[in-house]
Amino acid sequence: MFRAYEWMVAMRYLKIRSNEGFVTLVALFSLLGITIGVMVLIVTMSVMNGFRQDLLDKVIGFNGHMLYQPAGGRMSDYDAAVARLKKVKNVVSVLPIIEGNALATFGSYSVPALVRGIRPGDIRQMPLIADNIKQGTLADFGKGDDDIVIGKRLADKYNLVPGDRVTLITPRGRVTPFGTVPRIASYKIVAVFEVGEYNYDLGYFFMPLRQAQRYFQYGNQVGGLEISLTNPDLITKMFDTVQNVTRQFGPGGRLVDWRILNRSFFNALQVERNVMFIILSFIILVAVFNIISTMIMMVKNKTRDVAILRTIGVSSSSIMRIFFIVGSCIGVIGTALGTILGLAIAYNVQAILDFIERMTGLSLWDGKVRFLSEIPSVVNEQEVVIVVVVALGLSFLATLLPAWRAAKVDPVQSLRYE
Q1: What is the mean pLDDT of each run of 10 residues along the chain (418 residues)?
Q2: Among the listed residues 109, 10, 20, 50, the one whose alpha carbon sits nearest the alpha carbon of residue 350
């Protein structure tokens, strides 16, 4: 497609020459613009992917893939329901739970708490919790009548350690002739967990299921069943099958999955991700306009050279290919450098951030605002390919008009006064 002499001439035009300093400077800015655009786009998309994946893993690890909510918010024959659901293909766990709101107090402090009652054996089978115990142990969880597990953010904020006591107050108390008396109970911290999601580590409390039944006055009932599958991607395929089973538990029950429970949040993340891709693509577009400017100035400076080439028999199509090679090389080199830098940063973004924080003494990532304690990054190979293709495609298109104008140079007019 490209002849050897076309490559030779194009490479000569790409060399830095002292008498063409301004054109060279603009060309370097064009290359730098492409590099920065591709790099920023790859890093941003990787961080957005990591942010979504990390949040998804924590949401699913905490809440399961599906939640069955019985009519009236309570069910009594939950052991039989658990056994029936576990027989369904691809269902790996079914957890009977109770959830309730309370006010947790310790000393002169008080914070809102979401209390979850769960069987001791079940919490030990939750990797997100069991594998992230920072203080204490789950070995004795449920053996006492007042055990409770809290998050590390809460423990660090109020200097709580295993063995300390927490008082829970709930408005769901005892009804008396003078009104409802809030229910108050004291519990001992037996373990502290850290999953890396700020709200979970700050506001969640776990207690054994039988304690939760007594505290929230559920008797021998539970508030729902959390269902986990072998893979979250099986939700669409398995939803109807699981729903047919839950309909046997009685009328009025409701089965929802994590997509419904967190729809608005994850939809917002997806919209933000798409908008960021479009906005950051304009960085590449601006760099492409610089390539056009560079090529137009180069064509003007090389008008005499083009005329000489035409007079010795070089065709207009060859002239067009020469300048196409020049502009394309700027795009290819800039895209390659941007891809290498982008991947290097994306794979080491947290280490780079830690280094900057150590050097400046500033806190650049606040888990209170961004939910996660660290910057996640997941490189998607398909997205990297899309970024590279977009950058190269725009770069190639940007060279066509200047190359076409170079091919249309009239050698007679250009050499008329030579």
Answers
A1: 72 64 72 88 86 76 85 88 90 91 88 92 88 89 89 90 91 63 87 85 91 90 90 84 88 83 72 79 80 78 74 78 83 91 89 80 61 74 89 86 78 59
A2: 50
CA nearest to 189, candidates 124, 116, 136: 136
Distance from C-alpha of 4 to C-alpha of 216, rounded to nearest angstrom: 83
The residue type of 255 is: L
Q: At what angle do helices 316-347 and 4-14 cross, to 10 degrees?
A: 60
How far CA 259 is from CA of 229, 265, 295, 376, in Å, comes to 14, 9, 50, 21
SS3 category, 205: strand
The two three-digit tokens of residue 108, written as one number: 């002169």
Contact call for residues 92 and 230 (beta carbons, < 8 A): yes
Q: How far is CA 234 from CA 91, 230, 262, 330, in A?
A: 10, 8, 17, 46
Distance CA 342, CA 35 (A): 9
Q: Which residues contact 296 (CB under 8 A, 6 or more apart)?
A: 402, 405
In whole angstroms, how large is the CA radius of gyration of the chain? 32
What is the rounded CA–CA span in Å between residue 95 and residue 228? Answer: 9
